[in-house]
Design brief:
Elements lengths: L2 H29 L7 H6 L12 H21 L1
Helix pairs in contact: 1-3
Length: 78
């Protein structure tokens, strides 16, 4: 797979995983009356501050959640 194909898949996985995390987090935080995060924070990480240390953590979590979600969907469709 060439570079652009990999980047498109990575962005798609990041978007799907970020969306799933945002839906789950919004529901969970609403039930517990906690402050909610924005969609951008779930998809791209928190606002970059001076001491921001986790550059790839949110994208990695989004990719793992997307892979699990696709696996669950495929399992239920079979």
């Amino acid at each position: 797979m060439d570079f652009w194909g990999f980047e498109i898949v990575r962005l798609l996985f990041n978007f799907i995983g970020g969306t799933l995390r945002w839906v789950y987090g919004s529901i969970w935080r609403s039930l517990l009356n906690k402050p909610k995060f924005t969609f951008e924070e779930y998809a791209f990480g928190p606002n970059k501050e001076k001491n921001y240390f986790d550059i790839h953590g949110h994208a990695f979590n989004n990719m793992i959640i997307t892979i699990l979600f696709i696996g669950i969907v495929i399992t239920f469709l079979n």
